[in-house]
Amino acid sequence: MAVLQSVNVGVPRDNPWKAITLTGIDKRPVAGPVAVTAPGPKGTGAVGLAGDRVYDLAHHGGDDQAVYAYAREELDVWATRLGRDLPGGVFGENLTTVGLDVDGALVGERWRVGPDLLLEVSGPRIPCGTFQGWMARAGWIKTFTAAARAGAYLRVLEPGEIQAGDEVVIAHRPDHDVSVEVAFRAMTTEPDLLPRLLVAEALPAEDLESIRRRLARAPVDLDSPAG
């Protein structure tokens, strides 16, 4: 059975790693139920979980990045590799899951979390400079990208309250083979996979547009990583 090990909400802190004053990457487990709703379009700083927000308005937040999930099993692999404890929320994830293959989830897959909340996998998380600075490890973006275990962004289809211990049930799987991992690899290190992503209609519209532009420029720019 897949469950939430923790539900994590950001604590605002200074961001010396970008030309943005604050960051919400410091996510910490909270006790008790947390309301989750669709935040609306990107640009306001709103995200799905009550009490949380983002500060890089151009690149984070909004309906397509309402919730970020990462598997406890993957954190444990990283903890061994890095030689340090990695508590739930340390990668900036809102949901730390147990028993769920987050990176193997299909884009468009739907999760019922607790009795009411329905989420839809919208795509992979792409690492940024704030993440590297937060992890305090030189070359972290390259290391994280090479592993291709990026975790999943989700949009909110039906709002609800969730808390640690809630079950996560896969309510729907789309009829294609584009997983979060495949989408991440295509967008970063393996652009030859980009054509496969076009069937994943649940990808954010801006990502699909970017993919089509890159394919239209091929083969000249096909080896350039996604922006």
- N→C terminal distance: 36 Å
Largest sheet: 7 strands, mixed, barrel
Q: How many beta strands in the DSSP annotation?
A: 12
Quickly give the structural class: alpha+beta
In short:
It is built from six helices and twelve strands.
List the helices and strands and how they pair.
Elements: E1 2-10, E2 13-14, E3 22-23, E4 27-29, E5 34-36, E6 67-71, H1 72-82, E7 95-98, E8 110-113, E9 117-124, H2 129-135, H3 140-147, E10 152-158, E11 160-162, E12 167-172, H4 180-187, H5 194-197, H6 205-217
Parallel strand pairs: 6-7
Antiparallel strand pairs: 1-4, 1-7, 1-12, 2-3, 5-11, 6-10, 8-9, 8-12, 9-10
Write up what this structure looks like.
The longest helix has 13 residues, at 205-217. With 227 residues, this protein is an alpha+beta fold. It is globular. Residues 220-227 have low confidence and may be disordered. Strand 8 (110-113) and strand 9 form a beta hairpin. The protein has helices spanning 72-82, 129-135, 140-147, 180-187, 194-197, 205-217, and strands at 2-10, 13-14, 22-23, 27-29, 34-36, 67-71, 95-98, 110-113, 117-124, 152-158, 160-162, 167-172. The chain is built from 6 helices and 12 strands.
Structural key phrases:
single chain; 227 residues; alpha+beta; seven-stranded mixed beta barrel; two-stranded antiparallel sheet; 6 helices; 22% helix; 25% strand; disordered C terminus
